[in-house]
Amino acid sequence: MSLLTTRLEAATTDRALAALGFRRDDRPDAKAAIAAALADRERLAEVEVLAERVRATIGAIGERVAPFDHPLAASNWGGIGVLPLLALLAVADDVRAFHRSRGIPAFVSDRSLSDLGQQVWVHRRTYGAFGLHTYGWLAAAFCGNLYSLGRLQFNLLRRADEWMLSTHIPETGPLTPESVDDSFAQAAAFFGEHFPDYPATAFHCESWLLDPQLARALAPASNIVRFQQRWRLEEKVGPADGDALFFVFRRRGDVDLSTLPRTTSLQRAVVEKLESGGHWGLWSGTCTAT
Ligand SMILES: CC(C)(COP(=O)(O)OP(=O)(O)OC[C@H]1O[C@@H](n2cnc3c(N)ncnc32)[C@H](O)[C@@H]1OP(=O)(O)O)[C@@H](O)C(=O)NCCC(=O)NCCS
């Protein structure tokens, strides 16, 4: 039995899937996809190609990794992104071994890799089906450069001659100032201890959540506005209409704005801006606060 089949078989238990963040509703489809691949030599060979590409990136801190820049990743076998998903399942234990080599506790390892299941959940809410269209994003977690520390996720980023902690905000509940303070403090301690060879001097964020237009549309005491206030804005890096629609409504592609809910102030802000011909932007910022 090959390493790939051993790994995939081991991934079919509820326990293994739960450890990787798969919610109960997504586990039957994950198990079915694994079983279908195990029964299909050609598919296994394809998963192996992608798994090898992911494995080759483990430990590539601060480098651009793109293991899924490969035609097989775009296959729709079993659903969007299912081959990359199986490759990630097959490699999870190698990433855990890398974490151990850096002295990273198992609970941080599990939390960090559980973004896989979170993204499968996001995929279902976006497309109404099992799959993983955000497999490109997960490449960072599975090369060993994405860590969930409290409310936020971080990866080491090299900018000019400086290492920074790039900050990401998953959809896991409110972004309270206290949770952000706690996460920043955890990140400073964690990277100092486990990645002393990459001494980070500041936090970095690139997000549609930093668009200053949000501060004009939301209440000053809202978590998003208070989060924005931490950052020294740098520049608008690009357009973010698609990000706003994806992160607030979990919609991709052409969206009929009239069909979107307007229950919250953020939903109203996003839709009304686009309806009036305005646009959202992706902004970058830095901060040194802990
Ligand atoms: C970032 C996030 C955690 C902020 O949530 P929060 O802490 O509730 O934010 P705020 O307190 O600033 O919320 C302000 C208002 O927007 C609403 N709101 C916040 N996030 C919302 C979302 N994703 N969808 C709909 N409404 C949202 C709140 O309910 C509140 O509405 P109200 O004024 O009508 O009561 C949340 O927007 C989220 O999970 N977003 C998806 C992840 C994301 O965008 N990541 C960045 C990727 S680059």
TrEMBL record:
InterPro entries listed in its UniProt record: GNAT_C, NAT_N
Boundaries of every N-acyltransferase N-terminal domain copy: 12-144
Pfam families according to UniProt: GNAT_C, NAT_N
Domain GNAT-like C-terminal intervals: 146-286
Protein name listed in UniProt: GNAT-like C-terminal domain-containing protein
Native source organism of the sequence: Gryllotalpicola koreensis
Classification lineage: Bacteria, Bacillati, Actinomycetota, Actinomycetes, Micrococcales
